C-alpha cells in the first residue's frame, strides 16, 4: 500500500504578475526572494557599499537604501552601479527623489503613499519615467504613516484601511497604464498584517512584499516575522520578504532564508536535527549541537545532521538524516544514512562528523546536488 505522499509544500503559490527588480524576478513562478535594507547613511557611499557586500555574502538578493536627502539621492548612481545585487531606493516625502532614483539606475523605487505630499499630481510623470526605464514601483503602505483620510474613515490602521490605501495608490498608476507594481501593507501586529495581506491577495494580482514593520529586537522580531510570514507563505501568499529587526541587517537575511527553508520554499542547506536533551542524555547536547553547527557552517550542500543525546532514541531519530551521532558512555555512534559506521570517543565526535560531512558533501557535489 505504501505511505501517502507527504506534500513538500503547504500550498500552491498564489498566481501573481511577475515583475523584474533588476536581475531578480519577483512574483509569478519566481522563487520567493529575501531582501533587507541598509542602516548606513546612503550618502556614505563606501559604508553603504560595504554593508551591501556583507548582505550579499549573507544571501540577500535585493537591497533597499533610504533616500531622505539630496546627498543620498546623489549617491544612488554609484551605489546602484557598484552593488552586486539590485538596489531599491526608498523614498518618503519628495517625488523629486523618485526621478533621481530612476535616473540613477536603481532597480526599483519604493514609495509610501501616505507620506508623499502632492503625490497624486506627480503620478503621471513618475509612471512615464519608470515605464521608460523599466523600473518597477513598490507601493509600500505602513500602518504608522497611513493616509490621514483613511485613518479618519477607519479610526485606525485596520487591514481594510491598509489595503484601500495601497489599491487606491495602485489605481492612480493604473490610470496611466502602469502596472509594474508590487505592494506591501505592513503593520507591527502580525494578526493585522496577515489579515491585510490576505485581503490584498484576494483583491489584486500584484506581487506582494511581506513585512512585519517595527517587529522589534532580534528574538521578538524573528518570532513575529516567522509566525506572520509562515501563516501567509503557508497559504501561498508572498513573493518577496523582508524581516525587520532592530539588529544588523545580515541577521534579517539569515532569518528570512531560514523561514523560506523551513517551508521548503527554498532548498534547505545545512540542517542540524538536534534533540532537546532530556534526563537520558549522556552528553551535553547543546554544546555538541553548537560545535557541530559551527564546524559545518558555510556548507552549501543540503545536509541533515542529527545530534542525539543518547543511544535509546538516537539511532531511530537519526535515521532520516544524512549523518548523525548518538552519544552514550563517553562515546558517539556515528551514523551515515541510518547505519552505524563507527563508534568514536566523545572527544572525537565533532571532528568525525565534520570529516564525514565533507565526504558526503563531495559525493553530493559530484552528483550535482547543490543548493
Ligand atoms: Fe532524550 Fe535521547 Fe531523545 Fe535526546 S535522543 S531527547 S537524550 S531520549
From TrEMBL:
InterPro entries: Dihydropteroate_synth-like_sf, IspG_bac, IspG_bac-typ, IspG_C, IspG_TIM, NO2/SO3_Rdtase_4Fe4S_sf
Keyword Zinc attached: no
EC number: 1.17.7.3
IspG TIM-barrel domain location: 16-256
The protein's required cofactors: [4Fe-4S] cluster
SUPFAM superfamilies from the UniProt entry: Dihydropteroate synthetase-like, Nitrite and sulphite reductase 4Fe-4S domain-like
Span of domain IspG C-terminal: 271-356
Reaction catalysed by this enzyme: (2E)-4-hydroxy-3-methylbut-2-enyl diphosphate + oxidized [flavodoxin] + H2O + 2 H(+) = 2-C-methyl-D-erythritol 2,4-cyclic diphosphate + reduced [flavodoxin]
Gene3D superfamilies recorded: Dihydropteroate synthase-like, Sulfite Reductase Hemoprotein, domain 1
Note on cofactor: Binds 1 [4Fe-4S] cluster.
Iron-sulfur among keywords: yes
Pathway participation: Isoprenoid biosynthesis; isopentenyl diphosphate biosynthesis via DXP pathway; isopentenyl diphosphate from 1-deoxy-D-xylulose 5-phosphate: step 5/6
Annotated GO MF terms: 4-hydroxy-3-methylbut-2-en-1-yl diphosphate synthase activity (ferredoxin)
Binding of [4Fe-4S] cluster, residues: 275, 278, 310, 317
Keywords in alphabetical order: 4Fe-4S, Iron, Iron-sulfur, Isoprene biosynthesis, Metal-binding, Oxidoreductase
Function recorded in the entry: Converts 2C-methyl-D-erythritol 2,4-cyclodiphosphate (ME-2,4cPP) into 1-hydroxy-2-methyl-2-(E)-butenyl 4-diphosphate.
Protein family: Belongs to the IspG family.
Name this polypeptide is given: 4-hydroxy-3-methylbut-2-en-1-yl diphosphate synthase (flavodoxin)
Gene that encodes the chain: ispG
